[in-house]
TrEMBL record:
GO terms for molecular function: RNA binding. PROSITE patterns: PROKAR_LIPOPROTEIN. The keyword Acetylation does not apply. It comes from the Eukaryota. This is Pentatricopeptide repeat-containing protein. Keywords: Repeat, Transit peptide. It comes from Miscanthus lutarioriparius. Pfam families: E_motif, PPR_3. One of its GO terms (biological process) is RNA modification.
Amino acid sequence: MINAGIRPDPIVFTAVLTACAYTGKVADARKVFNSMQVVFGINPVMEQYACMVSGFSRAGMLKDALELVSSMPFEPNAKVWGPLLNGAAEFGDVELGRFVFDQLFMIEPKNTGNYIVMANLYSNAGKWEEAEIIRSMMWGVGLEKVPVCSWN
């Protein structure tokens, strides 16, 4: 695009950052993200931050992800915290997982996925009592894990 003289807009940046996150090209994502402001004068929005957090989290760069969240010029939402919770679960970081779960609990207390990820993180770490507390919290607010069904 740039070689063709076409200026990327925020949607293009989101698409490119998403592709980088899913393919593990964290260094490329970081260059693109940094170029948004410096080269193109575009301030990143929540979606672009979420893409970066997702890329860092998928790559196990949880500290980088948390630093980025902490440096955001606005309050992070569930789109930002969710990938970090999943990254903490994937890489077994119970402490970070609990911190992120608490943030998500304040934003979306009825999202069963967050409870399930956190309970599984505790279970995988052998913290059975903590996992049961999270499950009890989920049931305490009237949520249940919905069984999956197929029309096939």
